[in-house]
Fold each of these.
Amino acid sequence: MEAGSRQRMDVPLHRANLGPAMPSRCPRRVASLALLWTLLPTAAAATEARSEALAGSPFLFDDTDVFRFPSALPRHAGLVVVSDGLATGLGPHGGVILGDQLAFGLFVGRRSGGRALDLRNEVLDGPQLPIPEKIVDLLVAYRVDAAHTAGLSIGVSHGLDRSTNRDAGDNGTVTASVELMVGHSWDSPQGHLDSAFGLEFPYYRSTERFEVLAEVPVDPSFTLSHRSFWSLGGRVQAAVSAGLRRDDLDITLPAAGRSATGSVWWMELEAGPRILVSSQVTLAVSAVLSREARTVDDLDSPPRRSSQGETVITRVPGFRVALEGRPTTWLDVRFGLLGGRLQRTTEDGAGNSAATSESSAAWTTGVGLRLGDLRLDGILTREVLREGPNFVGGTTPGLFTSFAASYIF
């Protein structure tokens, strides 16, 4: 398929046996770039509703990839998206991606900032920190040549609840987060690779009557991300995805004379085949290993110890399945399954420890409607599958838990 044209299904990087390409919608592009573009995975014009219906698999391409790999932006140029954000907790948001060799993206309303602050709420006993609201995500990418693309994204979140007067002093809270990410993509007939490095700078300050109650310093968190696909011939690719992140837990409570320091390390590795079962069905099956270690190094309140302990959460073995099919020219159906065994170990710094384990699995289903260049995607409720919708005699009042729309231009 030539550059600029899109279809809903993912295709493998090597398309030699899949028949003739579809007509191009952008014939002005140079021939060498168009030829390489036929070897790339075709972008699907959907948002979180499609991704979450596929259990969040990184191996079925979606425009949400641009938030993990900003260098993926040119693959989705010429797109407007809106989403209710209910499936991921991002809230109602929307955006547009423009350009060609040089692509720009603008998204507003995504509640995706403040992870470094939210971790303090989960790990530390203390004040619950408000999470800043995302104001804007700005993205830009430049296709250097037919094989290499560089990308950059900036996300800004901010929250303010504050009052100041001469007698009562400064009262209220200010919270903020700035996210910076750079990325690189490499594409060839043999494979495809995305990599990115990101930094998040959080800040929080709470004051009351001239006193600082709590403050979070501007200590950056960092993220490393990678995804690659390598052709094994025919309709099969080997796919790998990896991620690494570190967050600080430092916080001071000057009015109470307390402070805490700590860190959270998170890593995930996922690998498996991505298979084009037929021209209308794509399947990705992968093994998942993830580990999160939460360590509180110092807590300046009783009991005072050099280490306050560590909590480690490991998913092993884990698995993910994503299946997307197109039974008709206007309908896509999706299924996702994520599961594994979670092991949790806790050590309190005084020689006491505990360990628990449990198995978990969650499945999702969704549908997509294609009406010309308009795409409508939803995640089906589990009740509607068991009991049917009420407008055809069932008992479920609604069809979807989340809904998104996108338009290709």
Note: Confidence is low (pLDDT under 50) at residues 1-46, 390-395.
Amino acid sequence: MCNKIKEWFISKPVVRWILFFPIAWISSIIGNLLWELLSRIIFIFMPTDSLFFKIFNYSFSGLFTGIIFMYVGVYIAPAKKKSISILLLILTILHSFITIFDVFFIYLEKDYWIILFAIFLIFGSVFSFLIINEKKNNNE
């Protein structure tokens, strides 16, 4: 059953063009939630309000979320992988800057840890962008 869905999905480029962004976005949310769960399990005896836990959790959460978003989006898109990776990188950077702007100017309760997440989200996306395009250049 799963193979039939995969074959159908791969054979329909129009569907892949429509769904590459939503699937990348949903995958990054699921990856972020799984990272939150994993970090809580790894640091089960550490208080979640400690400085080390917050730095570790927000930085790696942003890093993995950026990597997942870029990789899944480029993998799902049927063609023009380099253009899609540039588009997703621009969207990630734009999202991060809007998040940082919101923290400083809109939110009443300042949660500065989100800034760390946003910065590492950019790092993860740039890292994934470089890896994707290096693979693409090596294959040409």
Note: The chain has five helices and no strands.
